[in-house]
Amino acid sequence: MFTNRRAFLRTAALATAAITTAALAACGTDEGGDTTTPVTADQVQAALDKGGSITVWAWEPTLKQVVTAFEAKYPKVKVNLVNAGTGNDQYTALQNAIAAGSGVPDVAQVEYYALPQFALGKSLTDLAAFGSGELDGTFTPGPWSSVKTGGGTFGLPMDSGPMALFYNKEVFDKHKIEVPTTWDEYAAAAKKLHAADPKAYITNDTGDAGFTTSLIWQAGGKPFAVDGTNVKLNLADEGSTKFATTWQTMISNKLLAPVGSWSDGWYKGLGDGSIATLVIGAWMPANLESGVPGGKGKWRVAPMPQWTAGANAAAENGGSSLAIPKAGANNALGYAFLKYATAGEGVKIRVDAGAFPATNAELKSAAFLGKEFPYFGGQKANEIFAKSAADVVPGWSYLPFQVYANSIFNDTVGQAYVTDKPLADGLKAWQEASAKYGKEQGFTVG
Amino acid sequence: MTVLAPPTISRTGQADRGRPRRRRSWTGWAFVGPFMAVFAFVFVAPIAYAIYLSVFRTRLIGGTSFVGLDNYQQVFTDPQFWSGTWRVTLFLLVQVPIMLFLALLVALAIDSGRLYGKAFFRVAVFMPYAVPAVVATLMWGFMYGSRFGLIGNINDAFGVSLPDPLSPDLVLASIGNIVTWEFVGYNMLIFYSALQVVPRSLYEAAELDGASQLQVIRSIKLPAIRGALLIATIFSIIGSFQLFCEPVILQSLAPNAITTYFTPNMYAYSLSFSGQQYNYSATVAIVMGILTMIVAYAVQLRGTRKDR
Q1: Number of domains, chain A
Q2: Closest residue of A to B261, CA-based?
Q3: Smallest CA–CA separation between A18 and chain B, in Å?
Q4: How confident is the model over A295-335, as pLDDT tens digits?
Q5: pTM, entire model
Q6: Which of A228, A251, B104, B225 could in theory staple to B194 by disulfide, Cβ–Cβ 3.0 to 4.6 A?
Q7: Do A15 and B50 touch (CB under 8 A)?
Q8: CA-CA distance, A249 to A158, in Å (whole number)?
Q9: A224 in helix, strand or coil?
């Protein structure tokens, strides 16, 4: 019962803070306008020479090495790397810190789908003021266009997640299943596998907004159209329907392991063969190596199954940028770290540690493409990932309030996984609930 | 818990005001002052602030504006709020009677004096209350798991297929089971201590009159602990309406069965923390507080009326 009261008080306190900040922010806008004063490269260098300390909120594992190297290069700078949670947990913490106006980090990891929401809330610094324009051409087009949202550049791409099919070759060989190249083959393989071994599933899924939107993306769907504050939602377009139809058969035939991703059961299933494939972003290898050591040598990578036989379509799944919250204490130093980690020496350090880059130079380098993964039996997996990155279907856009929309995904679409409600109806309910929120937040929803 | 205060306060307050005073003395205030300051700071101020918040609306586009009672109007027609409220009401109607009945049974058994190892029994039943709700829920969550948990093990060992306790149809009952486990001991202790103060002479008199044990329970023990029963009921009503911790912890295990508006408290929490709708969240909290107050007060009125 104490938890309840505490939660209530916390809500009240935060709400208080939110109002105050809103009021203060309003004053600020009245006085100084909305433009950020430019910060030159010299000023950034001066900040580095002067030294100081910055706080970085990120959960990406390879940043640890980057911080060590950065501190070695600039001895006067101290970087506090804080893991404030993964994904939504961190966004909640960040939103609350920004609303409260205290404890805001200097640099924060923000996934591409979440960036528009923060940019729109005027919580992030437009990096154009720091001369981020000079980095044009440094990053691959997908991630670079993702950070350029709402008329500014609100982050620098740290990694990207072109999707691929990760499969447990041992399980496939044992049951003589071909590696699927289309989603229909994938569904057939799922049936065959589950029939051969009732404990084994082709994959796990308990309703995951990121996965669903990525598959709709690959199918050519464009359910979210955003133009400034005008938002259009259509989760019944052709691409969304393709996904809903195929995935409905997977759900109805109980071919999906009811295990949540990132749970203990998930790691266990990936290791013991009861979860045989994952269609997920190219950042997965580092997680497999650390989380599923028992799978070493058994797993392989293949291109994403296609919606149309013979096609080459791919989508992004996850992928993050590093951004600078406006309320951070040391923006100049923050930018120095940002550039170092995403476009400078930090990139190589991260790639060596198993991250998947968003920079053209690394993606095209022979050393990167030729890297053999012992975990995948010596397979040159980066070739597949790089091809997927090039095949990402253009024109996708997330909602400017995607973080909230994803938080209610299981209220709506998730129902299709545990009741008789059709998946298409779940998507429709998700669309309606998201549209309602958009309207409440002042968007023009069409 | 907050809702108990108003009736008591107003009653004592009226009594004080009714007394005529000759000379104004401030000495009393010096004693009450520190309490009043803390009370105002931690109790009155947050509520006043929540009320203040509830008449505004902050949007991503368009900023903050005064909306009067719009938020309240929205709560009363909000299907998600009412589905959560209905769920905790159902929980209240089913779980609370079961829990209180079990607690009463145990208290009477221990009080009967016929139980061997009475002290051990009392501690053992009370023990779950000492386990933090988060830990208790995690523990039960693992047992409920139909793949890797106890249920899964039973299914494997006996080749049966038990229904999944974390499915949408059963999850409320599963939470009820956890809450019952947690609070039977606590309520038992309330009943037991009330039973302890019943004069033993009454039992002797009953024995002389040839009353059976059941008659003793019905005619002496139950009437004697009516006050304790009432208190326990009111605590349980408030606890049910504020259900939060157990469903939140279980949500990670059953994301589709436990929605973000499963209980009114969870709804207020997700409105505020994922939706950034602080104003509406404050409104939901206030409306729920008032509802709880009304129900608890109604039960109290009914309970005391029977007393007369």
Answers
A1: 2
A2: A411
A3: 8
A4: 999 999 999 999 999 999 999 998 899 999 998 888 889 99
A5: 0.83
A6: B225
A7: yes
A8: 36
A9: strand
